[in-house]
Amino acid sequence: MVLYHRNRVPGATYFFTVALRDRTSRVLTAHVEELRRAYAGTRSKRPFETVALVILPDHIHAIWRLPEGDADYSGRWRAIKAAFVLNLWRNGVVATTNARREAGVWQRRFWEHTIRNEAGLRAHVDYVHWNPVKHEHVECVSEWPHSSFHRYVREGVLPNDWGGTNALRGQGRSFGE
């Protein structure tokens, strides 16, 4: 078995991809309020800044900035995943468990990348916001409701027509993954 070593830098900014076990599932968007409660509850107990976020039917992309001296993003994701499953169960959604009593909702692991500079941060924020178009859920970024893109528009950071139909395709723009 290959050992995966995570990069843990206290107070750093990280990009994450967290996916469902069943990549054909739409449970995240079908139960987005349960996910939001799990996310907010975890954030209230273990603070972090959400730089960017998109919730897709089968996975989440997020960029977090952790507090100074804190590098425990794994514990936060574990808490979000567990709280989401509990919220599903409370609402009557059936989620089977395995021999370890783990719900079969989430992939066991997640992907993380440490953001190293402002250019990397901008590229990853763009990637997060563009992702619903990449996966052909919408034609333009502003049509996807479960994205921090709308906060960026409200704050005047991005125009509402950023990432319009085919706006960034074929322009050599790299969003990295």
How would you describe this structure in keywords?
single chain, 177 residues, alpha+beta, Alpha-Beta Plaits, four-stranded antiparallel beta sheet, 5 helices, 14% strand, globular, disordered C terminus
Low-confidence stretches: 167-177
Radius of gyration using CA atoms only: 16 Å
Oligomeric state of the chains present here: single chain
CATH superfamily of the domain at 13-116: Transposase IS200-like
Q: Kindly state the mean pLDDT as a whole number? A: 89
Beta strand %: 5-15%
Helix content: 25-40%
Based on CA inertia axes, which overall geometry fits? globular
- Under CATH, the topology of the domain at 13-116 is which? Alpha-Beta Plaits
| Sequence of secondary-structure elements | EHHEEHEHH
Q: Which strand order do you get reading across the main beta sheet? A: 2-3-1-4
CATH top-level class of the domain at 13-116: Alpha Beta
* CATH architecture title of the domain at 13-116: 2-Layer Sandwich
Structural class: alpha+beta
Number of strands: 4
End-to-end Cα distance, whole Å, is 24 Å
Tell me about the biggest sheet?
4 strands, antiparallel
Tally of alpha and pi helices:
5
